[in-house]
Amino acid sequence: DVLIMDEYGYMFFRDRTGDTFRWKGENVSTTELEGTLSRILSMTDVVVYGVEVPGTEGKAGMAAIVDPDHSYDLVTFAEEMKKELPAYARPIFLRLLPEVHKTSTFKFQKTELRKEGYNISVVKDKLYYLEPRRCRYLPLTEEVYKRIQLGLEKL
């Protein structure tokens, strides 16, 4: 757990380290979430990690999904995810990758993915964000990215 101290000496919870992240006051296990999303997507490789969003507490969930042919139906995916996961555990951002890099022990390499986050000027893969009112994934455009960075887009 990561704690920070305010100017009065009070300590409060900021985030988690390791294979969990905290979003909307809840701890989310990336390993469990990867398993659930992989099962929904017919055993596709999925990497889950937390990304910082300006003006929010904790980290939003992001899932990098191997989809070399861009063939996944994100509407059906969101509907299935809604049935299986609580709102706080649903990935806010999706990144569709042609492949995911693994370590020599076959673990997913999350460091670079986490560092790039959902930055539209850095990531060249297709990016989507979860529109909360309809619980649908929509393309992450430059305009939406700017609104998120300014805290104008509700997540």
Automatic annotation (TrEMBL):
Coiled-coil region(s): none
E.C. no: 6.2.1.3
Keywords: Fatty acid metabolism, Ligase, Lipid metabolism
InterPro entries: AMP-bd_C, AMP-bd_C_sf
Pfam families: AMP-binding_C (PF13193)
Domain AMP-binding enzyme C-terminal residues, every copy: 32-107
SUPFAM superfamilies: Acetyl-CoA synthetase-like
Family according to the record: Belongs to the ATP-dependent AMP-binding enzyme family.
PANTHER family per record: LONG-CHAIN FATTY ACID TRANSPORT PROTEIN, LONG-CHAIN FATTY ACID TRANSPORT PROTEIN 4
Record-given protein name: long-chain-fatty-acid--CoA ligase
Organism: Gekko japonicus (Schlegel's Japanese gecko)
